[in-house]
Amino acid sequence: MTNKTKPTDPYAKAGVNIQKGNELVRSIKASVNATHDRRVLGGMGGFAGLFQLGTKYKNPILVGCTDGVGTKVALSQKYNKTHLTGQDLVAMCVNDMVTCGAEPLFFLDYFAASKLETKSAANIVKGIAAACKKSNCALLGGETAEMPGHYAGNNFDLAGFSVGVVEKSKIIDGKKIKPGHVILAIESSGPHSNGYSLIRKIIKQRKVPDSILKALLKPTHLYPKPILELIKKVNVKGMANITGGGLTENIPRILNKSQVANIDLSSWKFPAAFQWLQEKGKISNLDMLRIFNCGVGMICILEEKEVSKAQKILQSHKLKSFKIGSIIKGYSKEQIQYL
User: Fold this and answer.
1) Domain ranges in the chain with CATH number 3.90.650.10
2) Where is 29: in which H helix or E strand?
3) How crowded is residue 50: how many other Cβ atoms within 10 Å of its Cβ?
4) CATH fourth-level superfamily of 182-338
5) Given pLDDT bands bounded at 50, 70 and 90, which one contains residue 156?
């Protein structure tokens, strides 16, 4: 005897659509697979991603990083630019990773929303895949979750983590930094993915010029390829990804207690978007430098004689760079001095 009664879907009644989740997987499969090479074993659909390290490294050290996009997703939603947030997610992880000289190997993402909108979610994941490919990093897996009642309205969140590898003898940890070494700044694309709670407060109920809005929504620069080429050709002593905390809190993380970074504020000009935020938000210079990257996305510390060579390499990747200071000997609680 067959049961001709149409089956009910209690999960759908609770607000979770399994079919949409399956549709999402199908729609992103080609983009995800495009990030794979022979080091990836198997494909999408398993319970875990498999990655073969190979024999390239004699004494490999695995490096792990995790991060999210933060409240930049809310601004991106407001202006229909959520497809750009995938690059932000990848960049916030792999940019941290390369500061120790590591090569990104693979990335996994976590996308959670109140309601799964297949097309929008697919565009975000395709953005993640494209950023992984630009970083020579496999999108090894991911997870989507519908959580009605937990996220309100059309809210969603993005998080992810990456794993990389570096030869133990080639780890860059700042221990070789000495007084007299130069601080070379590499331009940012904008605020990257930091300070957006304040940014959203500043722009609320204000008319924002199109050029400023474009800069605020621009995805975070991906630094792995240029940095990995740089460290092969130049003896970089230390690097810092300028994220939350700005120059003020991130540069001291790679200095020892007897070192201070002298930063010459006349060596660069805050880009227009940061000037606008400072003016409208009535923010002091010191607060700007502690909250935002102010146009500096990454810094490298190296010898003066290698600066010109380093700048030429970065220029070949269409990245501007400029000297902003040097390391001196001294003891200071802040370990950074603005001149």
Assistant:
1) 182-338
2) helix 18-33
3) 13
4) PurM-like C-terminal domain (3.90.650.10)
5) confident
Q: Which helix (H) or strand (E) holds 131?
A: helix 118-134
The size of the chain, in residues, is 339
CATH no. for 10-170: 3.30.1330.10
Tokens matching residue 195:
């300070």
CATH 3.30.1330.10: which residues of the chain?
10-170
CB count, 10 Å around CB of 8? Answer: 8
C-alpha span between 320 and 288 (Å, rounded): 21
Residues paired with residue 110 on neighbouring β-strands, in sequence order = 143, 159
Q: What is the pLDDT of residues 186-243, one digit of tens each?
A: 999 999 999 999 999 999 978 999 999 999 999 999 999 999 999 999 999 999 999 9
Q: How far apart are CA 55 and CA 38, in angstroms?
A: 13
CA dihedral sign of residues 113, 119, 120, 126 = positive
Sheet holding 156-167, edge to edge: 60-68, 156-167, 103-113, 138-146
Instruction: Give 228's contacts (C-beta < 8 A, 6+ positions apart).
Output: 98, 103
The continuous run of DSSP H or E covering 19 comes out as helix 18-33
Per-residue pLDDT band at 26 (split at 50, 70, 90): low
Count CB atoms within 10 A of the CB of residue 171: 13
Identify residue 115 by its one-letter amino acid code: K
The pLDDT tens digits of the residues spanning 117-144 come to 778 888 898 999 999 999 999 999 888 8
Q: Distance between CA atoms of 173 and 276, rounded to whole angstroms?
A: 35
Residues 6+ positions from 55 with CB-CB distance below 8 Å: none
The reported pTM is: 0.88
